[in-house]
């Protein structure tokens, strides 16, 4: 099968799915927020603009599909060292060499769901410091479904890595969350723990090393954000930041950069 052609149609599918999910999220904010006070605050802020957020989700989905390393890995054969060098590394090409049509469809679903939800989750977390369960749980369900179906029906090994990385991310963040509760220290919210399945699982589809890079990048982003907030308030102790945007931005940056850098 021509992987170049295979990589073409998932881009369009990703855009369509992301558009549909973005419109759904834009028109159902009162339902997924499930809090009248938070809804009132969200509507008043300039950050929350449903249509631009939906459009941004489409842009993210298309960009992620375009930058997915299967395009480069498929430009040659496994014996073509030059093509694999351009793709990033020998291991990266091998990681993606066996992507089939079922894998392409599931990739489109995984990328578009994550992309559609990202702008809404980031803005809501910044404004009201919440990651709504009515977005996060369905998102986890979609990603888990794609990973399981990919493992059962797909040709690629990336789906098992997604399951392992997602589970490991939830375990790691769960330990950090419980440690913070025990020591009465500010670490992260329970919503961040749930979101970790997506934030670490989806990048593993791009590269086996992507979850580690995602963790580094998200911590750097969170650290810079905390320092800026502390400088504005002139107090580090009283500073709190929304960790969800750092997680989500780290997820996308790490996913794209890992096949190139690692």
Topology:
Blueprint (H helix, E strand, L loop, with lengths): L2 H25 L1 H5 L2 H9 L5 H18 L2 H4 L7 H7 L2 H7 L4 H28 L4 H21 L4 H26 L6 H12 L8 H24 L9 H19 L1
Can you characterise this structure?
With 262 residues, this protein is an all-alpha fold. The chain has helices spanning 3-27, 29-33, 36-44, 50-67, 70-73, 81-87, 90-96, 101-128, 133-153, 158-183, 190-201, 210-233, 243-261. The protein is globular and about 55 Å long. The protein starts with a helix and ends with a helix. Residues 1-6 and 71-91 have low confidence and may be disordered.
The number of helical runs is: 13
**Low-pLDDT stretches:** 1-6, 71-91
Mean pLDDT: 85
Which bin fits the share of residues in helices?
over 70%
Topology order in helix (H) and strand (E) letters: HHHHHHHHHHHHH
Structural class: mainly alpha
The biggest beta sheet is recorded as: none
Task: State the total count of DSSP E strands.
Answer: 0
Tell me, briefly, the overall form: globular
